[in-house]
Amino acid sequence: MHFLDLNSADAARLRQSQLTKPAGSLGRLEELAIWFAARLGNSTPPRLNPAIVIFAADHGVALDGVSAFPQSVTSQMVLNFLAGGAAISVLAREHQASLAVVDVGVATPYPQPAPDAGSPLRYFRLPVRAGTANLRTAAAMSAEDCRKAWQIGAEAARLAGERNKSLLIGGEMGIGNTTAAAALICALTDCRPDEIVGHGTGVDEAGRQHKITVVSAALARAHAAGASTPQDWLAEVGGLEIAALAGFYSEAAALGVPVLLDGFISTAAALVAVRHAPAVGDWLLASHVSQELGHQRCLAELGLTPLFDLGLRLGEASGAALAIPLLQAALALHRDMATFAEAGVTGPAA
Prior knowledge:
Layout: H1 6-18, H2 28-40, E1 50-57, H3 73-83, H4 87-94, E2 98-105, E3 121-125, H5 143-162, E4 167-173, H6 177-188, H7 193-196, H8 205-224, H9 230-237, H10 240-255, E5 259-261, H11 264-276, E6 284-286, H12 295-302, H13 318-336, H14 340-343
Parallel strand pairs: 1-2, 1-4, 2-3, 4-5, 5-6
């Protein structure tokens, strides 16, 4: 695990005090510049080079009626990502972020896209299995399948690091995954299902109550099966894409690359990673707070304060992608503003 560069942070903090503005007048933008200085080992960090990786997989619990959409939508959305028509596809292009899609367990067959050497989008088909089992009635996956998915995520982070990416963003696609994420958060905190389970893809209140029942049953089953460690719970009630995200975040921290979290699913995966290795938390930044009920509680468990609240609940890394220009602006201001001395402006009284 990499250590934070506190000398660079101190130098960045000193620079902030010398820029032509009242101290603290740029609020959290100042804090962000110092945060990145510590993690990138540079008192004036350059423009970020972001990479977005979407992990896609299916959930057996989707067949239990916990989603407003059928399971086949997962594979259809993978094709939409690849065709450039999804929200995250648009945002990645808009903000000049690389985009990769990794199939770690999509259940419904779909036509494999022809390789396009000229496309900036990268696609990897690495299914561990064709979706998870129904977490209400059985372990979502075996410990070995969980490990494989985790390692796929870790390898995605390593590949991004080799391409000199300085900000990693993980996204997900998987019908039914808000149910799995809610179960994980409950398992790793003292929260009750009714405090965490939300409306997901848009189920009504009756549907939410059904999800609460499903999550409660899954937690009781997994507890009886002896789940105790974060990875036990990940295998029992998680998802393949959630395991891949946890591995992605863990490896990013090991490599010393900052991570920008998206919404409810990605934050649940981050909670698993941090419970497994607390030092991972030093490398996490929260982009936004989702409309999904339990997201704020999960962020609080991680000690993270989101940058904004736009009422989002899409996933796909869309909220995190929206934060990229904000982060770029924070670093540009820190890097390019003149100091009082450089501008010939009288500074504050000592």
